[in-house]
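Quick note —
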Amino acid sequence: IRIGVLIHSKFKINAEKMLKGIEDAYDTLKDYKITYDITVIGRDTKNAWECEAELNKYVDYDGVLISGFSSEKCTSMLNDFAKKNPNIVQIHNINNDIEYLFVSRHDEMLASNMAAEFLSVCLRYRDTKNVILFTGSLESSVHRNSQKMFLEAAAIYGLNVLECVDMQDSSQALKKCVPEVFEKYGNHIDGVYITSGISVELCKYIESNKLDLSLVTFDVYDELNEYIEKGIISATISQNMSKQAQNAFSLFAR
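Predicted structure written out below.
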């Protein structure tokens, strides 16, 4: 059995965790004549829809595991590949407009509901419950689903969502838009949820301006530690990228 793995990610730590999961899965299956080939492409190198050559390397493999191709712009490329090799497994995020076998991912809808519920508890005794939602790139179905569920959950839990801001999974974009949002709403912001793993610039701004609000972030990585320890971050929602990849590899191979 030959398995191709194509990961498109700007988050180095996420790619590393997925690779670890695949290695762990392979270690339990390597006696069964299974081989695999991995290609990792950073988003600073090329966009996902520009990865056709890398994807077509795996056209003769028994299957291919892909991550980072949920954008609508990737649909045509993936459907063309599926005509030649329909054994596609998606990891972490999902493109519903293509043919695929299954997907292994975290439940972003549940995560957003958890974030809204947690913020409602944090803000229980506040006179106002105004919140801002920063989303990762809305080209991704993960962040579109996250936004949809957060807005629905916010209505249930009595939160007033002042604005949804697409920070494009970019530190530079976040650094630019955070001051604009806080200057616009001033001290009327009681809580914030960010669906992207890139949130350090937001934490820095809240700390430097001594803002009194509840902040829920996403993912766990070393740069967030100091903000968790200082109480700038009220909570962070973690996903297990290694397990997602491990499950995908194991289930397909079996």
